User: Fold this.
Amino acid sequence: MSEPVDPEPGPLSAGFIALAFLGGVAGTAARYGLGRWLPTGSGFPWGTFTANLLGSFILGALLQQLSRRGADTGGRHRIRLLVGTGFCGGLTTYSTYAVETDLLFRDHRAGLALVYLLATVWAGLIVVAAGIAASDRVLRP
Assistant:
């Protein structure tokens, strides 16, 4: 009797890594573009703030749809790796958020730092919920 063959490659397969990498390149490029396009004259890091919120919205919508369509296998798994892990992972950035908050505190702009800190967390939760709701409304399974 022959051994059953697992149709899904392991988590570190070259194909899966390539999907996450390609999505990450696109997400990072999008974040860079937002940072260059959005004004920072006020000292508020609009580029990072917008990138984190946009990524949270997309991730909420994406994961809602994928979970409603079935198990995380096959095409759904590949889409999650490309768009969720890759693109949204590259678009969003916790490290830059932390560094920018620290820089605002060091620049004696504690009020703005706290606004940025709290607004990012609360708005992030709100836009994840909005992404889930929008996904349910627009893309019914």
In short: The CA atoms of residues 62 and 84 lie 7 Å apart.
